[in-house]
Design brief:
- This protein is α/β, with parallel strands linked by helices and 333 residues long.
- The protein has two domains: 141 residues, 2-Layer Sandwich (Nucleotidyltransferase, domain 5), CATH 3.30.420.40; 170 residues, ATPase, nucleotide binding domain (Nucleotidyltransferase, domain 5).
- It has eleven helices and eleven strands.
- Helix 4 crosses helix 11, helix 6 packs across helix 7 and helix 9 runs parallel beside helix 10.
- The radius of gyration is 20 Å and the shape is globular.
- It binds 5'-O-[(R)-(carboxyoxy)(hydroxy)phosphoryl]adenosine and zinc ion.
- 5'-O-[(R)-(carboxyoxy)(hydroxy)phosphoryl]adenosine binds next to helix 6 and helix 7.
Length: 333
């Protein structure tokens, strides 16, 4: 069965076709990230306009034959309300005019489905659940206990900034570029995290906080002497990245141990970070935990993860009608 996925929750206009929840037939992503660069963050008004201008082009580029499509899946939240509206209205228009069933998908759970796309082994719920899921993106950071993709419980989440947002803000403080994740990772490769140490707030439960470390970076950066600024920036980037990765790895493993769970699923834009990937695999192996990690092309926002998850959500709870409305702050609780 072929499912067409549509994703417009933030600054990526994405359409994909996925066969039987796993084989990605086409996956087109148009990002408006370049339009946001000079503002150091996503400007909702710009993102929405670009979605509107590009969504038809993205559909054409995906080479979809609507006659072959068994269902249309769309992200209905969480995200920017105007951005979600474009995808939801577009999906409803296609579904209504072509008489194709419509499936609504939660963006955070879709990120947690990304490790199962184009993977070498078949996705089988028996092999994966129960699992601890960790979403680490620009908008969210949280730990979720999943009995399956329809029965889950929030274990903890950030009390302030998301991890990706912290990368973006620290990159601005260090005068690097937007988005912050890739440039901090690159800068950190030339630095030494042991020369400039940072810590993230040590919260007792499974919640996170990344606002304090941002302020610590700001004060450290201000104290830099001009002569050694480049080296210092690289060391700060490395120290910051290490502190964030340390807390993410530590809490993910602690949540698995707490729930006596042997499976850990990761998703979200920050998983593109190779230092995080290396540390997460190392610590998971030490504890005998199996780690499900997305391929690089599925780390950031895409529609393949939406179409893939929808294959497993074909029931009354998830089929949607023309009254489907997006939900900006759709939460997992
Ligand atoms: O999942 P995503 O594409 O969008 C949201 O749903 O928010 O995540 C985007 C976030 C940005 O904050 C970006 O800086 C971060 O992912 N990111 C990274 C890396 N690549 C992207 N963070 C750390 N290291 C990276 N290599
Ligand atoms: Zn996302």
């Amino acid at each position: 069965m072929l499912i067409l996925g549509i994703e417009t929750s933030c600054d990526e206009t994405a359409i994909a076709v996925v066969e039987n929840g796993q084989r990605v037939i086409s996956n087109v992503v148009f990002s408006s990230v370049f339009s946001h660069k000079r503002f150091w963050g996503v400007v909702p008004e710009i993102a929405v306009r670009v979605h509107l201008q590009k969504i038809n082009w993205v559909l054409k580029k995906a080479g979809v034959n609507l006659k072959e499509i068994g269902a249309i899946a769309v992200t209905y939240g969480p995200g920017l309300i105007g951005a979600l509206l474009i995808g939801v209205c577009f999906a409803k228009g296609l579904a209504f005019s072509k008489k194709i069933p419509l499936i609504k998908v939660n963006h955070l759970l879709a990120h947690l489905y990304s490790p199962f796309l184009n993977s070498s082994s078949e996705f089988s719920p028996e092999g994966v659940f129960p699992a601890v899921g960790m979403v680490i993106s620009g908008g969210h950071t949280g730990l979720i206990y999943l009995r399956n993709f329809e029965d889950y419980q929030l274990l903890g989440q950030t009390r302030d900034d998301a991890a990706g947002e912290a990368f973006d803000k620290v990159a601005k403080i260090l005068n690097l570029a937007y988005p912050g994740g890739p440039v901090i990772e690159k800068s950190a490769l030339r630095g030494d995290g042991r020369r400039v140490r940072f810590n993230c707030a040590n919260l007792k439960d499974f919640d996170f906080s990344f606002s304090g470390i941002k302020t610590a970076v700001l004060y450290k950066a201000r104290r830099q002497k001009t002569e050694d600024r480049r080296q210092k920036t690289e060391d700060i980037a490395a120290g910051f990245q290490k502190a964030v990765v340390d807390v993410l790895v530590e809490k993910a493993i602690a949540a698995c141990l707490f729930k006596r769970c042997r499976n850990l699923i990761l998703g979200g834009g920050v998983t593109a970070n190779s230092y995080l990937k290396k540390e997460m695999f190392r610590k998971a192996a030490e504890q005998g935990i199996e780690l499900f990690y997305p391929l690089f092309q599925f780390c950031a926002d895409n529609a393949a993860m939406v179409a893939g998850l929808a294959y497993h959500l074909q029931n009354e709870k998830h089929f949607a009608g023309l009254d489907l409305t997006p939900c900006a702050d759709l939460i997992i609780d």
